[in-house]
Amino acid sequence: MGIIFFSVSGGAYGLEELIPAAGPGLAILLILITPIIYGAPIAAITAELSTALPAEGGTYEWARRGLNSFWAFQAGALRWVNSWVDMALYPVMFSSYLALLLPPSFADQVFFSVGPIDMTMGWLAGVVFVIIPFGIVNLFSARFVGASSAWIAVIVLIPLAVLSVVGISTLLTEGVNPLSPFAATGASALASFGVGLSIIMWSYCGFDSVGVIAGEVKNPGRVIPKATVIAMIVIVLSYLLPTIAALAAGGWEDWTTGSFGDVAAQLGGPALGLAVTIGGMVAAMGLYSSLLLSSSRVVFVLSRDRWITGALARQTKKSGTPWVSVVVSSVLYALFSLGSFADLVVVDVFLINALLLLSLAALIALRIREPHLPRPAKIPGGWWGIALVGTPMIAVILFTMITQFTDNGGFFALSLFLATVTLSVLAYIPARAYRRRQLNGQRDESTSSAGN
To answer: Nearest 5°: CA angle at 329, between 92 and 65?
Structure first.
């Protein structure tokens, strides 16, 4: 549950921008309906596939079994490349919350430069307090990461729970209607819905990450569905209650990331404001740790299956953790966190949703090719059940992609997405040739050993 919680959420931290973008009433509505039309379908698809094929790799393994090696490589390569940007955001998020507790100039203070690249104190804080320690945590085992994630979740949720009690009490006492106005000022309900959906869907994607580590989960057929249901309930409540409570403070038109700390201080005093700010920092740690667990496994399976150098598949003897993948991934994320990702992050809407559609395609293909495959968490209702799950998810994905394209920067995002996919497709040619040489070499060694 802890791993799923931090693969998807981390609490309400970062949702502040949803309110001015959509409006209070519509924001609350989106928090409630998005898990039904987007989050729950992802979770259902993941639960069926990860319990039917409980092996490391997630979408990679599902595509390999249900489709073919080309689509498997695309799933692995695109997820790994996408993680370079995604994972680099959490050290930056940590530094942003830390900067609220320090002098404004501290985070931007440059201590070392390499050409045009400036290494700031904020970057160093992200490396020292997030990348290095949670890289070490990930060197142990998935079980260890899960246990630490569960405790981190408790630390993150306590300040939000206190904020919820204080804020909702204020709403009831002062008779404030948190749903008014319904939509953002000066925008139509449809326009506000589109912008708000683009923000909130990122708070409900990530359920498929647990499929990447299913091979390390004991009794996945029982554990994964149960943990997913519990995590979904906790995630929705951790979004809904603090957001409603924060509206008691007013001034939502000017909220930005980190504003919940100021709101908490206004409603409950400086101590609560400090606790919520620290909770945001801890949430960034938990998000990084859980997502490093899944992203490093993607590198591991690509290496294990000889698409890339086999050195990245080396594991620790005691726990079987792919330690080289963890270390290499951590170095990449540290390097990427040096940059500004305002332009790059928009491509996530295309890459992540493309991977979700690939998971759905693999599920359909496996239902056709292997109808008798044991499925402990099978989506009920046959093809009608799959249609009920897949149709709203596809509709949300298409709607969001169109919205992203029509917004400013949308053409850049689409161009970058197409360029990334093109490079991934082209990379398949040398990767396949390399894999064939490696596998042929293994066969020759086996034949020689047998002859001797």
So the answer is: 120
